[in-house]
Design goal:
With 711 residues, this protein is mainly β. The chain is 8% helix and 57% strand.
Length: 711
């Protein structure tokens, strides 16, 4: 604990020194002309516009902790998995068990979700990616089709509703008007990796259309780890007239991926390339098709008032043979998001505002069947037997939201927001009632939840802004968590709610060569929901206590050299996560005061980018991840690990309109052995040891060739 406090003091001292160095710079050079090379980094901070809360503003003027992952940041690695980009963002931690097995946490929220990502909202432009139970699968979407990612951390986004951990917004690549381009990139790598990414951009005076198609194949590092996916993305913009613009966003993904699952400690250390025995014998896999279609109409009434109206639909069909049963599920969702954006003056100062509604409904059908692979070993695969269950869930919510920003003075802005959410579920048990099966039909309706927000931004001087916010958020229960062992719905459960308190400083320093963001926060959560396992595939939800998520986050970039011939810059981020169970009683066990499970205390990222006028470029990045508790009792921790990645490339114009980009990369250069995903509080069945660990890939390589032709 002392070590962590010392680290906090060191970073606070750094922040103070940055502040005074900026004051000195401003006082001595306020009226001087700064050379273009020295202000490149600062201009990025000043000019980048974010839309995280639907009130477009410069990144440096955000009153919440918002991070931007640019195209350049995405391209620091290959375009196979989004985890490397997300893990460089302070406060964000993505664990990856396989290309189709991931879990994202923001400020520790979602770490207790056993499988997948929950309690975090995600959007593709204005289209919700989070289903009616609060679950999100970003791995369903093609990374090569994304231009940038905006992440708002903590319960600070009143415009998006039920996101206790925060909001992730994906912004797709788009085509320029009056321009036509063709791109193709082919990647090969270790463990049978092959990916081909094709892009077509077409634009005339009124239309801009971007089409992206990819196919990705991998044998995987482990047994039963084959992966095959085809993905298609359409993003188009159409100028109907001076006041109306229509946008269309569509995605489709067809995936078949085998599942090696997690390992016990003995297998993890001695045979990490193996699959879990039962999953290998059953040849467990998921066969999933997902699609999304959204249409948005933007209408401008006048220079002070406009509106965006989006209608959308989505589906996900999945067939997953598992050792203990076979799951056949489908989800169909649809909804509407309408918002009005305006501004007016109060005492000659501008008040920007947005208000709207989001309505979402989905229908989730899921059946389970016996898996008879042990009865028919000659089939060498799963064999479907008798039906075990048959459910249909109807899930719906609506958000009413308002957010406004007012320039109180030349140097001070205030942001006020309010969200109202109403969520309800209905469960229909379609399986025949018998002595062995009780009717679990029922409904669950949340009380309406108001989530307010207040944010403040104050300009300390030209190169630094101080910001603070207090905000409320919540995460809804999933319907499965409300079911009791007797099949009844527990209407006494409460959703997790929390208050976020944060203060930070962002700006530039050292003659504008450095840009930085430093924040400290507390996210206080009550009604902590525990998924108590009652069988191999059965869980019940229990409100078990409170957690305090105290943390410090930093990120920075520094331009070492910025000349016409050579640019060298460094980047980095640091997260200090002092997350504790304030009050946590689960059954007869009291875990109060323990570290929150599944979150490392320290995460450090360091890297360097190099670009040469000759066309050569490259980057080297390093990540340190501290130990994390695997069990609520804190009796077992994962081991500390360090990983380093390298990428070098060459770009050149072959002819006037044809460009070449070739690159080569090494991941996990020093062949570190570590668990890339942890299954917290795992239980052993049939006398077997608990399977906590998903082994990470050892050292691996990739190389790619990309061609771009502009007509």
């Amino acid at each position: 604990m002392k070590k962590k406090l010392y680290l906090s003091l060191i970073f606070i001292i750094i922040a103070v020194k940055l502040y005074y160095s900026q004051n000195k710079t401003v006082n001595t050079e306020n009226d001087s002309i700064i050379k273009k090379q020295s202000i490149t980094v600062s201009k990025q901070l000043n000019e980048v516009i974010i839309n995280a809360n639907h009130l477009p503003t410069r990144l440096k003027n955000a009153t919440s902790s918002t991070s931007l992952i640019s195209t350049k940041a995405i391209e620091r690695s290959n375009n196979i998995n989004i985890n490397e980009s997300l893990n460089r963002v302070p406060g964000v931690f993505m664990q990856t068990g396989a290309l189709n097995t991931n879990r994202i946490t923001i400020r520790g929220v979602g770490s207790r979700n056993l499988f997948g990502t929950s309690k975090i909202r995600a959007y593709y432009k204005d289209i919700p990616l989070t289903n009616g139970s609060g679950e999100t699968s970003l791995e369903d979407f093609e990374l090569g089709a994304i231009s940038r990612i905006e992440i708002t951390k903590g319960a600070t986004s009143s415009a998006y509703g039920a996101g206790l951990g925060g909001v992730i917004q994906l912004l797709p690549k788009s085509s320029n008007f009056d321009s036509t381009t063709i791109d193709n990139e082919t990647t090969i790598g270790s463990f049978g990796l092959f990916k081909n990414l094709s892009q077509l951009g077409y634009g005339n005076s009124s239309n801009a259309i971007k089409l992206v198609f990819s196919t990705t194949q991998s044998d995987g590092f482990r047994d039963n780890n084959n992966y095959n996916r085809q993905a298609f993305t359409l993003n188009s913009t159409h100028k109907l007239n001076v006041k109306n613009k229509l946008s269309i966003l569509g995605t489709f993904s067809d995936l078949k991926a085998f599942i090696p699952s997690s390992l016990n400690e003995t297998s993890f250390r001695n045979n990490p390339e193996s699959a879990a025995f039962t999953w290998r014998e059953a040849r467990g896999f998921e066969d999933t098709k997902t699609g999304l279609l959204g249409i948005t109409l933007h209408h401008t009434f006048n220079k002070n008032l406009s509106q965006n109206t989006s209608v959308f639909t989505s589906f996900r069909n999945s067939y997953e043979p598992r050792p203990f049963n076979i799951l056949d599920e489908s989800v169909f969702g649809y909804g509407l998001r309408h918002r009005v954006i305006g501004n007016f003056n109060i005492k000659n100062r501008k008040f920007n505002w947005t208000s709207g509604i989001e309505i979402f409904r989905d229908s989730y059908k899921h059946q389970t069947f016996e898996n008879l692979y042990r009865d028919f070993p000659e089939a060498n695969r799963s064999v479907q037997g008798d039906a075990l269950s048959n459910f249909k869930e109807k899930r719906q919510y609506y958000n009413l939201f308002f957010e406004g920003r007012y320039d109180v003075s030349v140097k001070t802005d205030i942001v006020l927001g309010l969200n109202y959410n109403r969520t309800n579920y209905k469960l229909e048990d379609r399986f025949p009632v018998s002595n062995d099966n009780i009717d679990e039909s029922g409904s669950f309706k949340f009380d309406g939840i108001f989530s307010p927000k207040i944010g403040l931004l104050h300009q300390l001087h030209t190169n630094a802004n101080l910001y603070a916010n207090i905000s409320h958020g919540f995460s809804p229960l999933s319907l499965e968590e409300t079911l009791l062992p007797d099949g009844q719905i527990n209407n006494n459960l409460n959703p997790e709610t929390g208050w976020n308190f944060e203060v930070g400083i962002k700006g530039s320093a050292f003659k504008s060569k450095m840009q930085y963001n430093i924040s400290v926060y507390r996210l206080a959560i009550k009604n902590l929901l525990v998924a108590r396992r009652t069988a191999q595939d059965e869980f019940i939800g229990v409100n078990a206590g409170k957690t305090n998520h105290d943390g410090l986050e930093m990120d920075w970039t520094y331009s070492i050299l910025n000349s016409e011939k050579l640019q060298i810059s460094t980047f980095g981020s640091y997260s200090l996560n002092l997350y504790k169970f304030d009050k946590f009683i689960d059954g007869n066990s009291d875990f109060s005061g323990n570290d929150v499970t599944g979150v490392p205390s320290n995460i450090l990222n360091l890297g360097i980018d190099i670009h040469s006028s000759t066309g050569l470029y490259g980057n080297l990045n390093f990540q340190y991840v501290d130990e994390m508790p695997i069990t609520d009792s804190n009796s077992l921790y994962s081991e500390i690990y360090n990983i380093s990645n390298l990428k070098i490339g060459y770009q050149k114009a072959l002819i006037e309109k044809l460009r070449l980009n070739a690159f080569f990369g090494i991941n996990n250069i020093f062949n570190a052995t570590y668990a890339s995903q942890i299954l917290i509080n795992a239980s052993g069945f049939g006398g077997n040891a608990p399977r906590y660990f998903y082994p990470a890939n050892p050292i691996n390589y990739y190389t790619a060739l990309a061609l771009n032709y502009a007509f």
